[in-house]
Write a structure and sequence with these properties.
The protein is an all-beta fold and 86 residues long. It has a single domain, classed as Immunoglobulin-like (Sandwich). Helices cover 0% and strands 41% of the residues. It has no helices and 7 strands. The strands form 3 sheets. The protein has a 3-stranded antiparallel β-sheet, with no helix packed on it. Strands 2-3 form a two-stranded antiparallel ribbon. Strands 6-7 form a two-stranded antiparallel ribbon. 2% of the residues are buried.
């Protein structure tokens, strides 16, 4: 079980998926920008120090600059284009 709360305190649905015998994946979609609070309960106990903080960012405010060549999904990639600043 887990509880996930937005910065405003609104509850967010979390889907728990068993990944393997010793781990789980949590699937959620933050709808607000900012720190979200995650509380995990397993077997009636809190297995981690809590609460955990998950940050959600506004993707439109993220700028990547100065990238020439690199790797994407373990494949060599070349980046081209005209850099711009706001």
């Amino acid at each position: 079980m887990s509880d996930f709360a937005a910065p405003t305190g609104k509850d967010i649905a979390v889907r728990v998926v068993e990944a393997d015998p010793i781990g789980f994946n949590l699937d959620f979609t933050p709808l607000e920008v900012g720190p979200h609070t995650l509380r995990i309960i397993y077997g009636g106990q809190c297995p981690v120090v809590e609460p955990l903080t998950v940050m959600a960012y506004d993707a439109s405010s993220i700028k990547v600059m100065g990238v020439k060549d690199g790797m994407v999904d373990c494949r060599p990639s070349k980046f081209t284009g005209t850099p711009f600043l706001h």
